[in-house]
Amino acid sequence: MVLRGYVPTSEETLQTLAALRLQSLNSDFSTHAPFPRLEELFPPHVLHARLPPPPHRPPTKCRGARLRVGLLAGGLWGQALAKQRAERDQRLRGRLREEGASTMAAIVEKWKLLQGMGRPEAMAAYMALVREWPGFGSTLFDVDLHAVRPQLGVVQGQLWQWATLTPLSLQSPVGCGPQHLWLGIGAKAVSLYKPGEPEPLDSFCYGRISSFGASDSSTFRLSIEDRDLLFETSQVEEIAQLLNMYLTSASAQRQPRPQEPPTSPPTLEPTVLPQGLCTAAGPWQHRPPVGSSHS
């Protein structure tokens, strides 16, 4: 998760984590110690973020301009532009190598300071740094939030229209593109993060989840009380299985033991079913596959 950029922290801390990893793998610094590749120690996207963005090209507005651009692309102008792009790419690759060498040198200097630290101590120090992130322990999934809409679909025979809603500090107005987010699934709550941000945009405990599931292999719905969050993701099944496991565990913990009857009368408030389902089954609701198990 650290190497994939799923632990948002400072670059200084990332270098320290890399040094601790080297100490754990190779013990004290030595010029003869095997050096892993930088991408095995440090998240590559941090290096790429240092590079200048590609030049912005204003879109051509009229058909005549597009035609002229197309004609020029096949001539000398096209060859000149291709040469410029190749030179720019070469400069960026050189800049990336320089940034990588600089980062590796900083990691090695931090590694030298760890001399005498044993492998268990290095691992403990590594975990202590990672645990400083409040989302530690969650499994993060890349998702695109497409809409936040009321859970009820029909009122007086008319379909509800999707609208700009901010029930979870999120905005997903009609006509705007999806928001790229992290969906963090932990033992106690589900959270939504803006990538790279340490604090969640919103977080909700499992008692607020009424149902979840998918209509196809890439669309996932999560119903929070009276609202639906619609996500596009390539990991629909993984998300559903993990949610089902945590919801089942949370439901089992809430159920009173036989020798300890409930001390208060039951209320009329809705509760989460063992599989996290609503009472009325629908095409979106998740049903765990027959014979499936989770460890």
From TrEMBL:
<dbReference type="InterPro" id="IPR014352">
    <property type="entry name" value="FERM/acyl-CoA-bd_prot_sf"/>
</dbReference>
<dbReference type="InterPro" id="IPR051724">
    <property type="entry name" value="Actin_motor_Myosin"/>
</dbReference>
<dbReference type="Pfam" id="PF02174">
    <property type="entry name" value="IRS"/>
</dbReference>
<feature type="compositionally biased region" description="Pro residues">
    <location>
        <begin position="258"/>
        <end position="268"/>
    </location>
</feature>
<dbReference type="InterPro" id="IPR011993">
    <property type="entry name" value="PH-like_dom_sf"/>
</dbReference>
<feature type="domain" description="FERM">
    <location>
        <begin position="1"/>
        <end position="257"/>
    </location>
</feature>
<dbReference type="Pfam" id="PF00373">
    <property type="entry name" value="FERM_M"/>
</dbReference>
<dbReference type="InterPro" id="IPR035963">
    <property type="entry name" value="FERM_2"/>
</dbReference>
<dbReference type="InterPro" id="IPR000299">
    <property type="entry name" value="FERM_domain"/>
</dbReference>
<dbReference type="InterPro" id="IPR002404">
    <property type="entry name" value="IRS_PTB"/>
</dbReference>
<dbReference type="InterPro" id="IPR019748">
    <property type="entry name" value="FERM_central"/>
</dbReference>
<protein>
    <submittedName>
        <fullName>MYO10 protein</fullName>
    </submittedName>
</protein>
<feature type="region of interest" description="Disordered">
    <location>
        <begin position="250"/>
        <end position="295"/>
    </location>
</feature>
